[in-house]
Amino acid sequence: MRLGSLLALAAVVLCAGALGDATLRYSLTIGTVYAVAVLGNNAINGTLGEINLAAGAYMAVGAYTMAWGLNNGWSLLASLALVILTAVVVGALIAVPTIRLTGIFTALATFTLAFAIPDLAISLQSITGGEAGTGVPPVSVGGTLLDGSSQAMLITVCALFVVLAIVNLLLFSRGTGATLLLVGEATPAAQVFGMHIRLAKITVWTWATVLGALAGAAYGLTVGFLNPTIFVVFLSISLLVAGLVGGARSVTGAWLGGLLVGTLPPNIQSLVPASSTGIVFGAVLLVALLAGHGGLGSVIDRCLGVLLVRVQRRRS
Q1: Sequence-separated contacts (24+) of 165-171 with Cβ below 8 Å
Q2: Do 174 and 111 touch, CB atoms closer than 8 A?
Q3: Which residue ranges make up each domain of the chain?
Q4: Which residue of 86, 100, 150, 296 has the fewest C-beta atoms within 10 A of its own C-beta?
Q5: Pairing status of strand 134-135 against strand 225-226
């Protein structure tokens, strides 16, 4: 059911990108990139029950690492490998002290990290370009240039999200997922059963960092230029809200949440006055939050389940 709704949404996004203009394709690409980061955020929120406000910081790590690799003559694959390796190291280093905290203290710790990222990017001028920013060289795959508003870029990020979402389903929907849920929801019981709680938590936080870094790498390739003002605290808060709207335990919901945050604001500006865009966007998010505890993803899954049941009844 979850895989079916995921593939159905992928088809809708790709069709909309093919039929729409360059502005719509670009916003769909950005929304899908955000969805990758939301997927990592949901791994923490949905399994461990913790609030992570550092998703934007993880994106910054991936974006600047990708830019550094490409600017120094590395290939796309080599730069991606560097992004993943850097994310694993950074994620593990952040996870070791963070897993000692719970609740609001985890949120404050990750908020501090997100708040410090712009200043850190400015201080690391040799890597990030400082306040002036740094460009991300364009890359080609199979002779096709991956431009932010091209259909090729949209297909690439959609394929990236689908692959990572399937991996996420395999990790968190079977025995491993049950173990992580037990660690997050009943830590004392997990200790009684002899589970490696610290290792499980470090693994989840590191996986979330890898997903955020991959989202940042894709973001850099899409926009072609990076500066510290992109990765502010508001980005991390938006990604957290996107996860809550879509559903913390739904991969389809993560994509829907990312699309809402990345696609809706630039497109409603052509429909309502600029002074009203924030009000309209907030109202849409509020309605989406009222969809239920499981978010929009659970609504899609339920509707698809009802449709399949009706089809089977008609066949029988």
Answers
A1: 165/6, 165/39, 165/251, 165/254, 165/255, 166/3, 166/6, 168/39, 168/43, 168/251, 169/2, 169/3, 169/251, 171/207
A2: no
A3: 2-315
A4: 100
A5: antiparallel
Spatial separation of the C-alpha atoms in residues 208 and 202, rounded to whole Å:
10
Residues with Cβ within 8 Å of residue 280, at least 6 apart in sequence: 268, 272
Q: Which residue's structure tokens are 């894709």?
A: 218
> How far is C-alpha 248 from the geometric centre of its chain's CA atoms?
12
Is pLDDT above 80 for 159?
yes
User: DSSP characters for 143-209?
Assistant: TEE--TTSHHHHHHHHHHHHHHHHHHHHHHSSHHHHHHHHHHH-HHHHHHTT--HHHHHHHHHHHHH
Distance CA 266, CA 206 (A): 32
Instruction: Kindly give, in sequence order, each residue whose CB lies less than 8 Å from that of residue 188, ignoring residues fewer than 6 positions away.
Output: none
Q: Which of 126-130, 270-274, 284-288 has the highest mean pLDDT?
A: 126-130
Give the count of beta carbons closer than 10 Å to the beta carbon of residue 241.
17
Of 33-37, 51-55, 160-164, 167-171, give the lowest mean pLDDT range. 167-171
Question: In whole numbers, what is the pLDDT of the chain averaged over residues?
Answer: 81
Tokens of 275: 């002074």
Q: Model confidence over 241-252: pLDDT tens digits?
A: 888 887 777 788
CATH second-level architecture of 2-315?
Answer: Orthogonal Bundle (1.10)
Token pair 């497109």: residue? 267
pLDDT for the residue numbered 188? 56
Q: What is the pTM of this model?
A: 0.86
Element (H, E) at 135: strand 134-135
The identity of residue 300, as a single letter, is I
